[in-house]
Each structure stands twice: as structure tokens, then as C-alpha cells.
TrEMBL record:
Pfam families: Abhydrolase_6 (PF12697). The keyword Hydrolase applies. One of its GO terms (molecular function) is hydrolase activity. The keyword Hydrolase applies. Residues 10-222 form the AB hydrolase-1 domain. PANTHER family: AB HYDROLASE-1 DOMAIN-CONTAINING PROTEIN-RELATED, ESTERASE_LIPASE_THIOESTERASE DOMAIN-CONTAINING PROTEIN. InterPro entries: AB_hydrolase_1 (IPR000073), AB_hydrolase_fold (IPR029058), Sec-Metab_Biosynth_Hydrolase (IPR052897). It comes from Kitasatospora cinereorecta. This is Alpha/beta fold hydrolase.
Length: 230
């Protein structure tokens, strides 16, 4: 355990519509390396609340911390990553906003011809994806049964989370890595390329849907290892 703690920690942050259990395969690979790994179970109600939940986990684990975010989790790590224990940021098919930007800002002007995520109109301040369209849009390379389970176990995503703006983007001060999912139908690959380039990330590109961390856990874990190694 002392050796594991001495290597620091990896903290995994999930995105919208899902919870932290999706990190299981990536977690297992990294734990098999003898690494200290923690998963944040943030409620995705507001960016401020999700950053606070992430800080809680960061403070509870040995540093230095490699902070990893998928999708909306990229906005969370951009804000939470300014924490002094965080040494590196890893974006997995994720949003990477700049100061004053939010997820809403980044999705306002999609590339021409990009697929439109099947987000239903908000109800009581929360969003869901159309359950029938969820598998194709969010998890097109997963077994149909698993994608349908994800559709039926969606976590409501608060509109306040999408509107939360970044105060100080961590990627301006800390090294970052980015995994681009080539077949993503939620965040268009050209948008991922543009964000990765803007933040100066070391970038890899793999075949995969928006659920690339589920379908390509080895590639995901490998990029996290690179970031943890510095």
C-alpha cells in the first residue's frame, strides 16, 4: 500500500447521463498495475457541486493526482484541476472549456453535418437522452443489451451543470492529454480535435463511440498511464 500511495493517485470523473460505475474496466486495469485509483460519484446537478465532490475525493487520496474526465467530466476537471495536488489532466472524448465558457457555450455551434444528440427538452431543470436513440448516439460500439441498460439507468443531467462557467482553466497551467473517439455521435470528432489542439494536449485517436472508455478500456488506461508518468 505504501508503494501504491507513493506513486500518487488517479481520480476518474464521469460525464452526464451516467455514473462512475462505467469506469470499472479502466479502474481494474489501473489497479492491476498497483496504482491507487478513486472514482468520483458526482451528481451532475451543477458544475460548482460537481467540482466540490471532485475536490473531496482529491483531498482524500495520496498525491500527486492525475485527474481524468469523460465528456462533461472534462468541464469538471478543467475547473477542479487547479487543486494543488493535481499534476496532470486527461480528457476522454471530453469537453475542455476555456475561462468563461461552459458546456452550453461549446455545443452552441456544432460543426456542419454533425449528428444531433437526442437530448429531450428539460423537465424540472434536468435533461435525459431519448431512450430509444441512446444506444446509437451514446454507445454505438457496445453490446446492445449493455447500451439499453445504460439508456434505462440514466442519471438526470442538470441544466445548471451545462451552464456552469469555468473560472480558471487548469489546462492553462498543467499538462494535459486527450483521447479522441473517432466515431463519437455526441461530441463530434472535429470538435474534439479543436479542443485538444487548443489546450495543447498530447493526443491519441482511437475507433470508438462516445462510450470509448467502456469499449476501449485498454487504450483509455494506456493514455492515463502516460499522463501519470508525466
Amino acid at each position: 500500500m505504501n508503494d501504491r500511495a507513493g506513486r500518487g493517485s488517479i481520480v476518474l470523473v464521469h460525464g452526464g447521463f451516467v455514473d462512475g460505475s462505467g469506469w470499472q474496466d479502466v479502474y481494474d486495469i489501473l489497479k492491476a498495475d498497483g496504482r491507487n485509483v478513486a472514482v468520483v460519484q458526482h451528481p451532475t446537478f451543477s458544475l460548482e457541486g460537481d467540482v466540490a465532490a471532485t475536490h473531496q475525493v482529491i483531498e482524500a487520496v495520496p498525491g500527486p493526482v492525475t485527474l481524468v474526465g469523460h465528456s462533461y467530466g472534462g468541464a469538471v476537471i478543467t475547473e477542479a484541476g487547479t487543486h494543488e495536488k493535481v499534476k496532470a489532466l486527461v480528457y476522454i472524448a471530453a469537453f475542455a472549456p476555456d475561462k468563461g465558457e461552459s458546456v452550453n457555450t461549446l455545443i452552441a455551434d456544432p460543426p456542419p453535418g454533425a449528428p444531433v444528440p437526442p437530448i429531450l427538452p428539460p423537465v424540472d431543470g434536468f435533461l435525459f437522452l431519448d431512450r430509444d436513440k441512446f444506444p446509437e448516439s451514446f454507445a454505438g460500439d457496445l453490446p446492445r443489451a449493455r447500451a439499453e441498460f445504460m439508456a434505462d439507468s440514466q442519471v438526470p443531467w442538470g441544466v445548471d451543470a451545462l451552464g456552469g462557467t469555468i473560472s480558471q482553466p487548469a489546462w492553462r497551467a498543467k499538462p494535459s492529454w486527450y483521447l479522441i473517439a473517432q466515431d463519437d455521435r455526441m461530441i463530434p470528432p472535429p470538435a474534439q480535435h479543436a479542443m485538444a489542439e487548443r489546450i495543447g494536449a498530447r493526443t491519441v485517436e482511437v475507433p470508438g463511440s462516445h462510450s470509448v472508455y467502456l469499449s476501449q478500456p485498454a487504450a483509455t488506461a494506456d493514455l492515463i498511464r502516460q499522463a501519470a508518468a508525466g
